[in-house]
């Protein structure tokens, strides 16, 4: 009696896949980041073989089940590894900023865009210098562009990018970015961030407009005691958006502030001092001194998943 030959489909598939991976790596076709994950996932092959042997005679389609379990293990391992690495602070890469501002410039449009980075914006002690520093992962690249026009205005664009589509795991991590802006030049500031703690301490700045959009993280914003020359009585001079996090806004006591709130479906009532603000119909917080104040500032705040808190700086 001839005994039928038994084959292991899973064994053949794994050997074929390994051969293809080795070939593609030899040809430098696989990105370095993906190759790094593959090299870390080889122990899963042992799990695949073990499950294949264990389930082959016990469960129908045991090889397919083992393959699915192996895929889930690789995906879970990669997600966990990237998540743990992404939360750690890195200091592999440093990029300083030292940009002098010509005496004739009276307005600077500043645009900042960051990834997984904690950001702090403050007033510079030098009246004609923009300075700062980025410290983070070598998988980040900070690009700064500064131009001055003939109309006495300047444009400053600072962008953090990820040069490698698939970064190496051991290089992943968070960054820190600080920027100091001159006080005697009007500032039009725009911020876009993916993840991180955002601190905008605009005290002492001639802030004409402020827009921010933070995808994930908490924001702390201190608005200055300054009346924008371009402000209109019927519209906000800026928008604060925190899509997944809390926002705290601090207002000088001599500023009449009005905030148009958009809380989405959070259901969280705004936190504020009833001695300083009125809560008006339409989800609006308005300073009790708004009508009489010499400095009137209007902002729109959007926080669909977080707490909105309005407080006082205690100083003018």
Task: Fill in the keyword field for this structure.
17-stranded mixed sheet, 316 residues, 17 strands, globular, single chain, alpha/beta, 21% helix, 2 domains
Topology:
Layout: H1 9-26, H2 32-40, H3 43-56, H4 62-86, E1 93-100, E2 107-123, E3 129-136, E4 141-148, E5 153-161, E6 175-181, E7 186-195, E8 198-201, E9 206-214, E10 219-222, E11 239-242, E12 247-251, E13 255-262, E14 277-280, E15 284-287, E16 295-302, E17 308-312
Parallel strand pairs: 2-5, 2-6, 2-7, 2-8, 7-9, 8-10, 9-11, 10-12, 11-16, 12-17, 13-16
Antiparallel strand pairs: 1-3, 3-6, 4-5, 13-15, 14-15
Describe this structure in words.
The chain is built from four helices and 17 strands. The mean pLDDT is 83. It is of the alpha/beta class. Helix 3 packs antiparallel against helix 4. The chain has a 17-stranded mixed β-sheet that branches. The longest helix is centred in the N-terminal third of the chain and has 25 residues, at 62-86. It has two domains: 9-86, no CATH class; 93-312.
